[in-house]
Design goal:
It is built from 7 helices and 7 strands; from the N terminus they run βαβαααβαβββαβα. The protein is of the alpha/beta class. The protein has a 5-stranded parallel β-sheet, sandwiched between helices. A hairpin with a 2-residue loop joins strand 4 and strand 5 (125-128). The structure holds flavin mononucleotide. Flavin mononucleotide binds next to helix 1 and strand 6. Flavin mononucleotide (FMN) binds at residues 10, 12, 16-19, 95-99, 140-143, 181.
Length: 213
């Protein structure tokens, strides 16, 4: 049964552009995968503590030697990793916050980036272990950060996501960006703003199915 892991990270819910676009992705994915399963992981509704020394100690203790307390410390990370490992495809909603990813997404990444689970060092070289998966990142930014403009260097969202997920082995990734959402606060019509981005989601899903067929 194909499984889609749907991860959102905008605190704005009904006003969020990234959430509206990932919801459209999920609706269309369900339509084309009637036997599929969608797992929703709302990072704004998930209590995720920052990692601490005990967490790091537990990760670097061989599994068979972990104490019950260390197992408990890693239980959230284990559940999030299970969601990642069981899914075939991922869709992420990512708002730009302060030129980077939202803190809840960074907390999640810290929970799932684990030696021996999502990456390893073989012969001193890093090797990503999230393989054979497809990811779609749907990013929303208030400003516009097009390449070759002086604002491009302020955008740490897509470069960071490409680097960290590439490191973890997830290289089959598509990035769709709804740029300039600040216009919505200045009276720009939301329906008109979203229309090309909803179309981009639809076209992308059609191309995913074409590849899969
Ligand atoms: C806390 C916060 C920080 C933000 N920082 C930036 C920023 O650095 N650059 C930018 O272009 N937009 C910034 N924005 C605007 C968001 O990127 C924009 O509202 C986008 O639509 C967020 O995605 P969402 O609609 O899915 O929440 C920020 C918004 C919030 C709430």
């Amino acid at each position: 049964m194909p499984t889609l892991l749907h991860i959102d990270s905008s605190p704005l819910y009904g006003r969020s552009v990234s959430r509206e676009l990932t919801a459209a992705f999920v609706t269309q994915w369900r339509a084309s995968h009637p036997d599929g399963r969608v797992v929703d992981r709302d990072l704004n509704a998930t209590a995720m503590p920052p990692i601490n020394a005990e967490w790091v100690g537990a990760v670097y203790t061989p599994e068979e030697g972990r104490t019950p307390q260390q197992k408990e410390i890693l239980s959230l990370s284990d559940s999030l990793l299970a969601e990642l490992e069981e899914a075939d495809e991922y869709v992420f909603g990512v708002p730009m916050h302060n030129f980077g990813v939202p803190s809840v997404l960074k907390l999640w990444i810290d929970q799932i980036a684990r030696v021996g689970r999502t990456f390893s060092y073989t012969d001193g070289r890093p090797k990503g272990l999230i393989i054979g998966k497809k990811a779609t990142f749907i990013i929303a930014t208030g400003g516009i950060y097009h390449a070759q403009t002086h604002m491009a260097s302020f955008n740490f969202v897509e470069p960071y996501l490409r680097s960290v997920f590439g490191f973890l082995g997830l290289t089959d990734a598509t990035f769709l960006t709804a740029a300039g959402t600040a216009a919505l606060n200045q009276g720009h019509d939301r329906h008109a703003f979203l229309a090309p981005h909803l179309q981009a989601v639809k076209t992308h899903l059609q191309s995913l199915q074409g590849v899969a067929a």
